[in-house]
Every structure is written in C-alpha cells, then in structure tokens.
Specification:
This protein is of the alpha+beta class and 124 residues long. It has a single domain (3-123), classed as Alpha-Beta Complex (Sufe protein. Chain: A), CATH 3.90.1010. The protein is built from five helices and three strands. It has a three-stranded antiparallel sheet with strand order 1-2-3, with helices on one face. The chain is globular. The N and C termini lie far apart (42 Å).
Length: 124
C-alpha cells in the first residue's frame, strides 16, 4: 500500500472510529493524556479467560491518536495479556502502515500505553 492509502485509512478510522465508547464495569481501564498534543484517551478492556474479549476507547485527540486507538482496539480483541504486554512501537507502526516519526510517536502510542497500564491495574 502506498503512504497515501495508509494515511487515508488512518483518517477513516479517525472520522469513523471502531470501538468508540465505554465498557461499563470493565475488567480494566486506564486514562492516558498527552500534554504535548492534548490527546485524552481512556482504554476499556473486558477480560475473560486471560484474553481480551472486548476493547473500547473514549476520548478526544488528533487523527493519529484516535485512528490508532480505533485500530488498536480492533487488534487487541482475542489477544492474551502476555501478547499485549509484549507489544511496542513496531506493533503500532505495523497497524498504521507508516512510521509516525518522532514528533507524532507519543500520539500514536498513547492508546497502547493506556492498554498496557490498564493491564497492570488489572493484575493488582
């Protein structure tokens, strides 16, 4: 896919995000905030039998942060907690299809960091 097509997919997820909403009584959740950009996202996870049964997010942010949250919540479903904890920047760049660059990296990784922090809270 060309860079333009990847950018179009990110914008499509921004304009029509998947999994936007709240999971009442979620197994785990975490609020993430990026003061550099103003991105403000909460990730909600429903965990059953050691796997993510459902994932949602709520909040506001730039196209990169919302687009990534939409793609990531799709990607998290069915993953084990160990698989999620091993995810990093390569996971995000694979989902986006582009390298967001150093300036937008915090925007792109906000939802993953929130999901991983939610799992830390879940284990406690």
């Amino acid at each position: 896919m060309s860079m333009e097509l990847y950018a179009e997919e990110i914008v499509a997820h921004y304009e029509h995000p998947h999994n936007k909403g709240v999971i009442a009584n979620a197994s785990a959740s975490h609020h993430g905030y990026n003061p550099l950009c103003g991105d403000d996202i909460t990730i909600y996870l429903e965990i059953e039998d050691g796997k993510v049964a459902d994932a949602k997010f709520d909040g506001v942010g730039c196209a990169i942060s919302i687009g990534t949250a939409s793609m990531l919540t799709d990607h998290l479903k069915g993953k084990t907690l160990a698989e999620i904890n091993k995810m990093g920047i390569p996971t995000i760049t694979d989902l986006l299809g582009i390298d967001p660059g150093p300036v937008r990296l915090k925007c792109a990784t906000l939802s993953l960091k929130a999901a991983q922090s939610a799992l830390k809270g879940y284990r406690k």
